[in-house]
Every structure is written in structure tokens, then in C-alpha cells.
Please model this.
Amino acid sequence: MVEMDIQKMAEAFQKLQALQDEHIGNRGTAVHQTATQSVAGFMSSSDKIIIDQKGLRATGVDNGTDILTLNIGYYAGRSLTNGPRGGIDDTVCTVKVEGYNDLKKYTFDWLSGGKQWVRYVYATVTDTGWTDNGWVNCILKNGFTGRCVVKKTKMLHEEILSLRFDVAGTFAKHSAPVDFANLPAGWTTLDPNRIVNVGRAQYESASGLSNFCPVGFDIRVGNTLQLVHLDTLDFDLTNFVGSATFIRSDSTV
Model:
């Protein structure tokens, strides 16, 4: 039998006590106490929920789930209810919900379409609706080519559409307004009034020199973009470049 003096027994006991305290938490008489910012311990259930909500792996939800009923977290599903409009198919989309109680920010990603929308809800006070964060291609028509993109900014009581364009086509001299593009599906307007913005158009003079003149852009009832003559130049216009801004207070989106 190995002899052990009192000093060695005391040291062994202290080591064993330290191991036990490290495992169960030395917090008075109770064991397995919840950790704090200053003392180690076990994870609480509320801490576990918070950690899970910060993860990047989405939780699957049933098809048709109402987005506005989701708690803070990250989710994936198909055909989700109360999502953004705009031709979204039944492929998998993800929704990230951030905030506190009924003060929430929703981020909706249509993965196969490569598009993202954001929505802010502040209890029953404010609901911005879905806002497309990116530039979206307009659909050119009537022989016009190039690129025309639009971006939507949702304000509290109105919506701002920003338009950028660099297109080529023929706009005959002295002609009536001509349709050159359509806004994306779901971007229609109920505004019955013409809202004309000014851009630039290129023309070639009789001497063969290229010049620029102002040209108008407007949205007709529905979602059609038009070119409008602002000058009485005796030349056909061929290239159109610039930007325009439209403000709507009656968006259906």
C-alpha cells in the first residue's frame, strides 16, 4: 500500500475540487449555473436561441408559410405567403428576420432569380412594404436596343423610381411620343398623369456632326416608358442616354 501524507492528500483533493468546479460551475451551493459575462458556466436556453438565430444555416418551413408570422431567425421555403410581388416562381427562397419583438426587418432572397427585397415593420405604426434593393432591367420594345434599368426606393408615403438608360433606336422627327420600354412586372402605377423627365438624345446634323438635345421620358398609365419630343429639331433622334426620376404616391407594389 502506497503511503501518502496529509499534505499530498490535501493537494490531490484541491486538484479534484478544481476539476469539479470547472465542470459544474462553482457558484455557491447550486450546480450547473448559467454563465455570465464574468463567470464561466452553462448556456441558458435564451442564449441558445440567440446563437441559433445568428447562424447562417436556414431552417426549412412549410410551403405557403406566412412570412409575417416568422420569429427572429433565418428560413427557407417555397411559395411563401406575404412575400414580394414580381414573378417569383415556386423555387426555394430564403427569409432573414431581424429585430426585436414586433419591430422587424425582413430580407427576402429569390435564389434562382438572383433578386433581393427588404421590408421594415415597426409594430402597427409603419410597414414599408417590399422594396427591391437592386437595379432591375426594363424590357425594351419597338426596335430599341441597349440597356435601361430602374431602381425603386420606398419612402413612408411615396415611392421613388430612378431610371438609367443608354439605348439606341429611331425616334422620327416631329413624331408623337413613342413607347420604348416596359417597367418590370409588378411595377405598374395608378397615376393617371404624365410625369415627364428630361434626358439627352443624340442626332446627326446635316454637316455630319453628332449633337445632343434634350428629350423627355414619361410613364404612361400602366408600366410603359415613353420618349417625348421637347425640341422641334428637323432631325431624327438615334441614341438616348441619361437618367430620370419619378415619384409615385400610389404604388400597387
The chain is about 10% helix and 40% strand. Residues 115 and 232 are 42 Å apart (CA to CA). Residues 46-132 form one domain. The chain has a mean pLDDT of 78.
